[in-house]
Amino acid sequence: MINAEGLRKVYRLKNREVVALDAVDLNVRQGEVYGVVGQSGAGKSTLLRCVNLLERPDAGRVVVDGADLTALSRPRLRAARHGIGMVHQHFALLSSRTVAANIAFPLEIAGVGAAQRRRRVAELLELVGLTDKAKAYPAQLSGGQKQRVGIARALAPNPKVLLSDEATSALDPQTTASILGLLRDLNRELGLTVLLITHEMDVIKQICDSAAIMENGSFTESGQVLELLETPGSLLARSLFPLPASSPPDTVTLTYTRQSDEPLMSQITREFDVDVNIIGGAVEEVAGHSVGRLNVRVTGPRRQAALDHLAGHGLIVEEVR
Amino acid sequence: MIEWIAELGQRWPDMWPVLWLGTLDTLYMVLWSTLFTILFGLPLGVLLVATDRGGLTPAPAVKAVLGTVVNIGRSLPFIVLMVAVLSLTRLITGTTLGPTAAIVPLSIGAIPFFARLVETSLREVDRGVVEASLAMGARRLTIVGKVLLPEALPGLIAGLVMTIVALISYSAMAGAIGGGGLGDIAIRYGYQRFDDYYLWATVVFLVLVVQAAQSVGDFLVRRVSHR
Ligand SMILES: Nc1ncnc2c1ncn2[C@@H]1O[C@H](COP(=O)(O)OP(=O)(O)OP(=O)(O)O)[C@@H](O)[C@H]1O
Ligand SMILES: [Mg+2]
Prior knowledge:
heterodimer, A: alpha/beta, 11 helices, binds adenosine-5'-triphosphate, AA_ABC_Transporter_Permease (chain B), MetI-like_sf (chain B), cell membrane (chain B)
């Protein structure tokens, strides 16, 4: 749905250059929620702004829903943008307009008639649960309500793609959860493709099908979350499941992305005569699957054979250090 | 004190028509020049913001020229400007005397003043909102009409009130060189004939007109502000 190749963006300041994007390839499949995480200054916002060409990349192509945006004329680009909704960290609502008029704004831009606008706005208010706030002004709303208006506005012209830059980072945890839930529902019910930026691993864990980790303008890891978790040495896995910093010798990290019916631990103690000691770990719901990650100390002469046995049964086994 | 009031009561029937006509002349000058000031100053202010680096249509050369013109207009004392544009005034109105002639220098003086105030108000509009509108596929003219101006409306009205108050004060100066209005009365009766009654009466009338403009303005600002 979103295909970007070789994106490069350099900001030229007075005395130096900042390479904000460096050869970034982005592939967001139709109907998925794709999350980009990274430190402040990694280039996440720049990437998102390149997807709807608010920022024109210095090199590379951006194809959204089959159209190469980088090659479009100004009027055609404007038309293409009706199909790409955007949600902003600081909401970016018009303070001079009521909630209803804010949601109607993209429809006015797209030239939708007044009667149809009114109908669509009523639908969207219902969808985000703000029907009773239709006539309120943004200044009278809470942060979570403002972001619901922002989402309703982004959805008004029936976009296929929703871009979200830190949509929840100005909100408290509870409100964050409800906004993420709303995005997830929209993704499931409307088949909306969502590309979101966040600096919270929790957001990736809760709603993303795919993810990328960004550092200094490029992706260090990207792909489906479950596959990344199964990749040895994955930074994402390590960030999603922070494990004890120091471990005794002979400790391994075990990751499993599906439940196993076999009692693997007791099998290895019996068959390979090793001692197993659980140091720490967690089981969490990730991308709709229950995923576990354990730090386990395995000792004994036939340790390697025991670990091979676990790996043979679909567990990811990584030596700690 | 009592004598003073008694004399004022006696003279008031004569003074009133003079003061009233003077007020009407002042209002006439101020309202027409306000109209021209909005007509030229608003677009000028919008251009100052739009042609800026990072604006809607960056054009540094245009910005530099407009900025310089505005600064020249702003740095001339009104009394000097009035004399400087005399020939232009004659060209447009056919005369250099009277309230109609005063409209020309008043407008020319107020346009750059208002344009700077417009520029300041528009700059205060959240950049994020402009960007959000671009992301929605809005044309630049739509953004000016539906985002920048409405979002800045309270500031624009406040700026307009400041401009009107400045115009009222300029108009009194215009009176000094035969523009008519309350300033003219203050000069002719108060200064040249040492008639304190007229002098103080025009002061009171001017204060009332300014006060009225400010109150209406403040009311409107409160009405349109939803922040
Ligand atoms: N308009 C700009 N002019 C100059 N430099 C810029 C501009 N926008 C971004 N940068 C620089 O590009 C780099 C990437 O910025 P970007 O905003 O994409 O980071 P980010 O990952 O979104 O960070 P954050 O998490 O803080 O939002 C930074 O070093 C930033 O200083
Ligand atoms: Mg950012």
